[in-house]
Amino acid sequence: MTQTLNTILLDPARxxxxxxxxxxxxxxxxxxxxxxxxxxxxxxxxTAKKIKPNLVPSAVEKxxxxxxxxxxxxxxxxxxxxxxxxxxxxxxRPDQAANALLSVTDSKAQETSSDALRxxxxxxxxxxxxxxxxxxxxxxxxxxRHAAAASV
Length: 152
Known about the structure:
- The protein is mostly helical.
- The chain has one domain.
- The protein contains 7 helices and no strands.
- Helix 2 packs across helix 4, helix 2 (about 15-30) crosses helix 7 (about 115-150) and helix 6 crosses helix 7 (about 115-150).
- The chain is globular and about 45 Å long.
- It starts with a helix and ends with a helix.
């Protein structure tokens, strides 16, 4: 049976672990951010988690099906090529892969009834592009781990 990202990431038995792993990935990416913008990201992230501790897992839970769908064409091509490192595959297509993922949040931002939230998102979007691109190797490695577990 051909594995799709939906079958790998959304399997009810594996999904809680996928969500926990994705939260760890977000935590690592925030922790690794540097410079003045990194300090702002770290401060904002810490504040958001303090106000709403389940913010990241809740967002991941809600967005995971759409993220899996957005990455599916990349995963299908990677598998068709016989790839062995999805992180490297994604990192080799940073603009396309990041935009596929961000198209999910772009859509959600456009659907919100809050003009302030939409404006804030649109202001952060260019930095988000770079952040997502930087996270692609870790994201691909995470998906590879779960794909290997799914095929056992």
